[in-house]
């Protein structure tokens, strides 16, 4: 595999440091005011050895969870928690022949990693966290590891569309999502802010190009209906996924959150989801979580406050209103919505201050 060496030039390192300084005030404010919430998250979901526990998925751990937790640790200025998560991940999930991570670890199994395939969103957040940590905590070895992952993602998980190879898409993993002229993708794996900041820090410009094309892809999907969890791409265009869930569900809830966090609150996917939330979200009812994308029929709801936080932020950001209907944080919910709720808080703090709950 062709890999780049660490970028040690002053411009590259300077850009990374400046990015950290630009968000430093918001990060310091959040680390101070929301420290009890971060502690509650750690008490509920972070083991002492650095393993992030998905309490709803048989106590398993995923590269996604490790990356998510490490990003949070940089925002809450917690070098110790970051180090423990990093060390557990490197010991346990960094077992592939390339720099990417195995996607899942199962406790209590003779073979806790039966599938060594990666998950590109987990790798993306992991590398993004390492870039942020290199600047915030002053540890250059983190940047070297981020460089390896960025190169591997560009080489193995970013490919041309069927019938239009110049347009790049992000595969969910190295294996299993390209077959018979058809690519299966997960739209929620696109996180433009992470992709762009990782590209700036490592010089892997393919990531930034893919982010831009991903925004266009999400726009095309949203013009037809709600963005689904999974979609297939053929030479004829995008169609419902044949092998993965094609409803708008627990995966796609991240799409508007990640776009807002990336300062793309006017994106069609945000506006489309905001409209749906406005129609179906009731003060005393559950949040629509599984939806038929074209008809908008709600198939499943959830009472977890993390999902209500995302819905409130989406409505507020799209309408450019003052004050979002974001409930108080509680760790008395599964790992996934609890984590998305902290992400929503960060997005408010850094990108949408008008949506601070009132």
Task: Give structural notes.
The protein is built from 13 helices and ten strands. It is an alpha+beta fold. It has a single domain, classed as Glycosyltransferase (Alpha/alpha barrel), CATH 1.50.10.10. A four-stranded antiparallel beta sheet has the order 5-6-7-8, with no helix packed on it. It has a two-stranded antiparallel sheet with strand order 1-2. A hairpin with a 2-residue loop joins β7 and β8. The protein is globular and about 45 Å long.
Secondary-structure map:
Blueprint: H1 10-22, H2 24-33, H3 35-45, E1 61-62, H4 63-75, H5 79-92, E2 104-105, H6 120-136, H7 140-156, E3 158-161, E4 164-170, E5 178-179, E6 182-185, H8 192-202, H9 205-224, E7 231-234, E8 237-240, H10 254-261, H11 268-280, E9 287-291, E10 298-302, H12 305-319, H13 335-350
Antiparallel strand pairs: 1-2, 3-4, 5-6, 6-7, 7-8, 9-10
Helix pairs in contact: 1-6, 1-8, 3-13, 4-5, 4-6, 4-13, 6-7, 6-8, 7-8, 8-9, 10-11, 10-12, 10-13, 11-12, 12-13
CATH fold-level assignment: Glycosyltransferase
> What is the strand content?
5-15%
In whole angstroms, the N-to-C terminal distance is: 52 Å
CATH architecture: Alpha/alpha barrel
Backbone structural class: alpha+beta
Shape: globular
Helix content: 40-55%
Q: Counting H and I runs of at least 4 residues, what is the number of helices? A: 13
List the strand order in the largest sheet.
5-6-7-8
Overall mean pLDDT score?
91
Question: How many structurally independent domains?
Answer: 1
- Provide the succession of SSEs: HHHEHHEHHEEEEHHEEHHEEHH
Oligomer: single chain
Low-confidence stretches: 1-22
């Amino acid at each position: 595999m062709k890999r780049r060496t660490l970028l040690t030039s002053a411009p590259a390192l300077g850009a990374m440091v400046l990015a950290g300084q630009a968000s430093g005030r918001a990060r310091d404010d959040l680390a101070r005011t929301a420290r009890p919430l971060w502690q509650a998250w750690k008490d509920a979901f972070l083991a002492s050895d650095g393993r992030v526990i998905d309490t709803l998925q048989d106590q398993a751990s995923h590269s996604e969870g490790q990356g998510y937790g490490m990003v949070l640790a940089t925002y809450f200025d917690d070098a110790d928690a970051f180090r423990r998560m990093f060390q557990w991940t490197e010991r346990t999930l960094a077992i592939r022949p390339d720099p990417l991570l195995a996607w899942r670890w199962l406790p209590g199994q003779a073979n806790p990693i039966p599938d060594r395939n990666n998950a590109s969103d987990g790798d993306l957040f992991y590398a993004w966290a390492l870039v942020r940590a290199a600047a915030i905590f002053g540890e250059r070895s983190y940047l070297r590891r981020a460089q390896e992952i960025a190169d591997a993602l560009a080489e193995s998980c970013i490919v041309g569309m069927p019938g239009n190879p110049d347009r790049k898409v992000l595969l969910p993993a190295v294996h299993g999502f390209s077959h018979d002229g058809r690519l299966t993708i997960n739209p929620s794996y696109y996180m433009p802010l992470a992709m762009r900041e990782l590209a700036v820090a490592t010089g892997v410009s393919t990531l930034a190009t893919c982010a831009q094309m991903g925004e266009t892809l999400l726009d095309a999907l949203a013009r037809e209906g709600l963005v689904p969890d999974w979609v297939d791409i053929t030479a004829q265009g995008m169609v419902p996924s044949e092998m993965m869930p094609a409803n708008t569900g627990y995966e796609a809830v991240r799409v508007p959150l990640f776009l807002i966090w990336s300062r793309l609150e006017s994106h069609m996917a945000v506006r489309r989801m905001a409209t749906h939330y406005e129609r179906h979200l009731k003060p005393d009812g559950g949040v629509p979580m599984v939806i038929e994308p074209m008809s908008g029929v709600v198939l499943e709801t959830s009472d977890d406050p993390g999902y209500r936080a995302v819905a409130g932020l989406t409505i507020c950001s799209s309408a450019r209103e003052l004050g979002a209907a974001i409930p108080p944080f509680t760790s008395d919910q599964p790992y996934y919505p609890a984590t998305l709720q902290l992400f929503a808080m960060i997005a408010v703090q850094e990108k949408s201050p008008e949506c601070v709950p009132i």
